[in-house]
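Q: Joint fold for the lines below.
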Amino acid sequence: MTTLTAEALRAGYGPRTILSDLDLTVPPGAITAIVGANACGKSTLLRCLARLLRPTAGQVVLDGRSVRQTPPRELARRLGLLPQSPIAPDGITVADLVSHGRHPHQGMLSRWSRADDMAVASALEATQTADLAERDVDELSGGQRQRVWIAMALAQETDILLLDEPTTFLDIAHQIEILDLLIDLNRGRGTTIVMVLHDLNLAARYADHLVAILRGRVHAAGSPDSVLTESMVEQVFGLRCHVMTDPTSGQPMMLPLCRHRTASNFPNEEAMS
Amino acid sequence: MIVHTETTAWIAALRGARRKARLRLVGVIMALLAIGIGLTLVTGPTMTTPSELMRVLAGHDVPGASFAVRELRLPRATLSILTGMSFGLGGVIFQTLLRNPLASPDIIGISAGSSAAAVFAIVVLGWSGAAVSVTAIIAGLAVALLIYLLAWRDGVSGARLILIGIGLSAMLDSMIAFVLSRAPAWTMQDALRWLTGSVNGATLDEALPVFLSLAVFGGLLLARRGNLEAMRLGDDTAAALGVPLAREKVLAVMSAVGLIAVATAVSGPVAFVAFLSGPIAKRIAGPGRSPLIPAALIGALLMLLGDYTGQHLLAGRYPVGVVTGALGAPYLIFLIIRSNRAEREP
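A: Joint structure:
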């Protein structure tokens, strides 16, 4: 099992420091969701883990070796990333896009092999996009397109897959479809998944391990039951809420309290402030 | 992993069909090139018959044909093809890296920079040969760096880079005109070469540096095309796929500038060949991979046919750059109008 940890990570853009002394251990074989308020450093953390951003201090360690000392191609065979808004070249077909996932497996001289075809076919099947293989990526719906990008990352055949808000811009049905797909991949292939998610309730429902980030540090990490609490939501998001067990999943869920439309058995936000 | 035999076979078949179509396309362009070469070699004030041409090429002395073919037409065809390939490949690399057909080196001033340096080295310093090529490459890289630095503001936006490049290009063009106007014994013919590009008076000696630059820079670019393809998916995705971005970008830009600069040092900045080749190649090759080899071949075809048209098909004789300029200008206007409209849409 591949292990991924961040040690005393400090990172930012230019003079602005976003992450400071952040420690994180990604549990192997599990689904980790990273949550936090806007601009708390969630995406910055993911970019550091994927080596897209160089930390100013500390390091990211993959299997006991700093990712900066791992050759890029070798790293790309073990750690995949789906960025928030990847670019599909004009008129590229689904099969061609997914084939790009094989890039780190090909050397300067080695030719495309049957193993590459098999990896692409398997990624298409796993994401149920095989029947779209000949279509242009431009023509697909948002949900289909996201599945195709996930297929590309799967064709990369990495032990760890990082996803930056994989459900943004999708309607609720497609959000569920994508998250279900990620669980399938985690269970079926044993892929370790780390994703940044906006929706706390979906994060608590789908993740085995929940990480809440506050001002560039890990505020709480652990099982959704232990992390998703009323006090955590108040500290991390500045939002008062009520946490209960989601009757459909048995996972914790949170219901935000607002200034209006509050039932009499809950404290009204206005009355408290 | 579950083996999906049927899907695997289908994926392999799709890839095979694509490969065949690409090879067929390259074959068709090569056939057109062969026709263009044949036409260039036989056409002149006195036409050479195909049988005479064969005998000349086989090394025999044919009175009235040998000199024209060997000393005039063959160097002209060779230089047209080599510079055309350099312009086509260099152009499509820039257009692919910057994801914009307007980002061609002849639009954003890199050709003009190389041309200005070459004309300065030749006219003012009296240099020739490799020294001129090297000067042209250095000037091309300097202009590329200057555009990049001027366009930098929290990252580089394609539109800003292109506008700055167009401005620099105009400045460099006026420098070329200035140098030429100060050179007393300079003929109209030479002036036209440095203003619009020409293969008049080509010799096989001139073709050698262009051939070497194509072999080195072109070979380097083709060997690294996998990385170039991955970079089309955006910087983040490419990095996640294991492409060392900084190194690959520098290598690709330097190779493309090298191709453009060496060709420009010989034929002048032949108008719009770099700009037109990529989009034409993409149109006929269809989407999919970036059409590097088709673009190089289309560049050669544009040079060869442009020169043939300028020499033999129009009333009067024009250098190749006049013909390709007339072809490229409407397309440039079309692209600018379209990008302007696209920006205004919400």
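Q: Anything notable?
A: The two ends of chain A are 49 Å apart (CA to CA). Chain A touches chain B through 50 residues (CB under 8 Å).
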